[in-house]
Amino acid sequence: MTLTRRNAHKDGGTFKNSDLLWYAKAVGVMKSRPVNDPTSWWFYAAMHGQKLNKKQEGYPDWTFIESIPASANLGVLPSATQMSLYWDQCQHSTGFFLPWHRGYLAALEYLLRDIIINQLNGPADWALPYWNYFNKDENKIPTAFTDSTLPNTDIPNPLYVAERYGPDKNGIDIYVDLSLANQECQSKSTTNDYLGKSGGFNHIGSQLGSTTGRIESNPHNRGHIDIGKYNEAGKEGLMSDETTAALDPIFYIHHCNIDRMWAAWNTKNNNPKDTNWLEGPTADGLSRYAMPMDGAGTAWHFAPKDVNSTNINFYGNVGHSYTYDDLTLPVEAPSSLASRLINLGKLMPEMSENEPVVPKDISSELVGASTPLTLFSGITETSVQIDNTSWKSVANSLRDASNQNLPDEVYLQLENVKGIHNSNSLLVSVNGTFVDSIALFGLRSASEENSQHGGTGLTFNIDITHVIDELYLSENLNIDALKVKIETSDPIIGDTFEVGRISVYRVAQ
Amino acid sequence: MRLSKKTHNSILLGVLGLSLLIWVLLLLNPGNIITIEHCKAPAMVLCSSDVVLAENSLQTLLELNPISGLLAGWGLMVVAMMLPKLIIPIEYIYARSLKRYRFRLSVLFVLGYLSSWMLAGIFMTAIILAFSYWLPASYLPAIGVGIIAAIYQCSPTKQRFLNLGHNHWNLPAFGFPAFRAAYLFGLTHGLWCVGSGWALMLFPMLLPNGHTIAMLVVTLMMISEHLEHPRPLRWELNPRLRLIKYLIAQMKAKRMYVIKAR
Complex ipTM, two decimals? Predict the structure, then answer.
C-alpha cells in the first residue's frame, strides 16, 4: 500500500483533521514511555540530537525542559551501545541532510502507524501530515498544536509544548515569517545547490567540507528558528536548537514539508548519481545511519541510496511507500545563467535557447577579505578589502563573457561565525543592496569546542554575482573594497557574534 | 567554495609523492643516511632503533649517535609519517588564500608544523638515548611505552588534542600577517599533533627490532585518527579505523563501477 501524506491544514488545521488527531494520540503513547525505551518519544528525539548525556549547565540540558514529564525517567539512560549507535545522528550542513531526515521520518511513521493501527485501532491509511507554510493563509501553525487539551477531554494535548515562542516571541502567534522564508530553492537545478554537498574527510561546516543546500538554509533553518525563537528571559524554544528540536511534535510536520518539497523537486530533477552520495557515510569510512524499529531496538541501517525515492525497503519484506497529495513546484524561474548573459549584453535574447554549458571542474579563488569582526545587536558595517591583482580576473571574465566563455560568479562568505544564539538571523547587504538573510539554526552546537564541528562555527556562502554585474554595467567595477552591512534580526543572546573573516571569492567556470 | 580537481590532485600527488620518497629513503637507508653507522667495533651491543652501544658508555653512545644526526633522522621520519596528514590543512590554506600566496603559505605552514615536532624530537631523542643507555637491546621500554600509549588512546586528553587538530585558523589574507599566521597555524597544529601522538611515535623508536614496520602501522593509525570527526571528551575504547573503512569502501565502490561499466 502506498500511503498519502496530506496537508496538516486540512479542516482548518484543527483536530477535525483526523491525521492530526491520530498523530496526537500516538505521540501521547510514545511520550508515556521512558527514555531508555527505543520506541519512546524521548529516545527518538535524542536520535536527532540531545543534551542529556553531555555536561551542560542549565537549559538546553533536557533535565531543565519543563515539558518533559517525570515518566520519561531521564535519570535512567539507555545502554552505552544503544546511545552510541542511535543518538546524535542528525545531518546538517551537508549533502546528507535530506536523505537522513527522510529515513528518520519514515522510521517514526512506521512506529506511529504500528501504535495507531495495532494499539489504538485507528485508520490503516494514516500517514504523517505536512505543514506547507507557503500555501495561502497557512503559514500559521495548525491549531491542533496549540490547543492545551485533546478535543472534548481534559487530557493534555501531546502536540502542545510550551517552549515554542514564534517570531513575535510571545508564545502565542506561532508562524513562519514569509517576509524572509521562501521556496526559491525549488528552482535550483544543480544538486550541490539544492541538497548541499558532503565534505568527505573535512569536518562538517568547514569551508572545504560539506556545504549547506538551499533547501536546508531556507526554508528549513528559517522554519526552525521562527517556530522556536526565544522568550523574554532569553530562553530559546525547542525548535531553535538541534539538540532539542525533535522533542517538539511540530518538528516532524515541518520536516515532512521539507521532504515533500524534495519529492516535488525530484519530479523534474535527479538526485546525485555518484557513489559517494549514494553510499553516504560508508563511502567516507563512517557507519550507516541506524533507526530502531521496535522496543527491542532492532536496527534498520540505511544509506542515501536506500531513501533515494519515497519507496523505501526497511529490511527483509518490510517496505514503506508513500507519496504526497501535493507535489507541485512553484512557477519555474527562467535559467539564471542565460538571463545573466542577456542582462550583461553577452547573449541575444533570441539566442537564449542555446543554454550555456557549465563545465564540471569549477574552482574558487579568494579575491578579497576582511579582518575578524564582532557583531553586536543591530547594524554592523565593515569593508572587505579587494585584492587588485585577483580582481582583474573577475573584470576580465566579465569583459570577455559569452555563452562559451562563462563569466565568473562572485560569492561573499561569512567564515567561522560563532555564538550561542540560534534563533537569530543576519540580514546582509553589499554596497547597499540586500543580498540574503541567514538563519543561524545550529550555531550554538557548531560553536562548541568538542562538537562535531570542532568549534569552528558555521560558514555561509552568499551569491553576490548580481551586485558585481551591476558594478560592471555601471562601469564601476574598479573597486578597492566592498561595503558590507550586517543587521541582526533580533537582539543577540550572549551579546555578540564573532565572524572569523568576511571573504569574497570568484568562482571560475 | 572549493578547489578545482586539478589543484586538489596536485596537492595530493605532491604531498604523497614527497612522503613516499622519504619512506623509500627510510626503508632502503642507502649508505646509512638515516641511521648511523655504529656496528663495526667489536664488543658492541645492538640496542634500540639501530643504535649501538659500546660497553654501555654514555660518552661512546653520544659519540656514535651525534644529536644532530639523530634529529635529522627524526625530522625525516616525521616528514614521511606526518606529511599525508597535512593534506587537509594544506587544502584549507589553498582555499582561503590569495592565489599567488598559496604555495608559500603552505610551505610556511609545513615548516611551522615541523618546528613543533622537532622541538618534541629533542625530548623524544633524549628519552630514546636514555633507555638505550640504561636498558640496551631491551623490549621493556617499548612494552612500557606501548602500555602507556594504549591507555592514552582511550583518554579524554588524547581526544581533546585530536579535536583541537580540527580547529583551523582564520587566516589574514594580505601581507606579512598572512605569512606569520600560516607559520603559527602550522606550529599550533603541530603542537596538537604532538599532544595526541607523542606516545604512538615513541613506541616504534624504542623497539630493538622491527621499528620500521611499527612506524608504518603507527602512521596509518595516526592518519586515521585525525580523519575522525571531533568527539565529546570521555574515556572510551575507540579504534578510530576510519581510514581503513574508507579504503575498503572506496575499493568496493570502484569494483562496482567496473562491473557496471562492463
Answer: 0.84
